[in-house]
Amino acid sequence: MKKLEIVIRPEKLEVVKNILNDSGASGMMVTNIMGFGNQKGITHIYRGTEYTVNLLPKLKVETVVADAKMKKVIDELCKQVATGNHGDGKVFVYDVENAVRIRTGETGEPAL
Predict the structure, then answer these.
(1) Any residues with CB less than 8 A from the CB of 5 and at least 6 apart, and which?
(2) CA 36, chain centre distance (Å)
(3) How many helices (DSSP H) and strands (DSSP E) are in the chain?
(4) pTM score of the predicted model
C-alpha cells in the first residue's frame, strides 16, 4: 500500500476528487495549508506599491491506495491537474506498512 500526499491549488480539488473516485480510492483527507516551493510566492501591486505574498494557499489531499493503483492515480493527476505553471503542486509517495479498520479489525488492503 502507498500513501499519497497530494499538494494542489485549491481550485483543482474537484478534479482530484474525481480522479481518486474513478481510480477506486476508498477515501481521502483534505487539509488547508499555506506554503511555497519553486514559485516563491506572487507579487501584487496595490495603490502603486508592490508587495510579495510568500505563503500561498494550497490544499493537501491524503489518501492510501493499493500498490497496483498508485501509478494510474499519479499519471491521471499529472495529466489533469497540471496547468504548466509554477505552483501546480506535488505528489509525495510513502510506503504504508499496515492499515487497520477499527470497526472490524480487518488489516492490510481489505481495511482500506
Answers:
(1) 60, 61, 62, 91, 92, 94
(2) 15
(3) 2, 6
(4) 0.85
Residue type, 52: T
The residue type found at 4 is L
CA angle 54, 59, 63 (to 5 degrees): 145
What are the grid coordinates assigned to 72, written together?
A: 494510474
CATH 3.30.70.120 fits 2-111, yes or no: yes
Q: How far apart are CA 91 and CA 87, in angstroms?
A: 12
Q: At what angle do helices 13-23 and 67-81 cross, to 10 degrees?
A: 150
pLDDT digits (tens, 9 = 90+) for 29-75: 999 999 887 767 677 777 888 777 788 899 999 999 999 999 999 99
Amino acid at residue number 104: T
The residue-averaged pLDDT of 91-98 equals 96
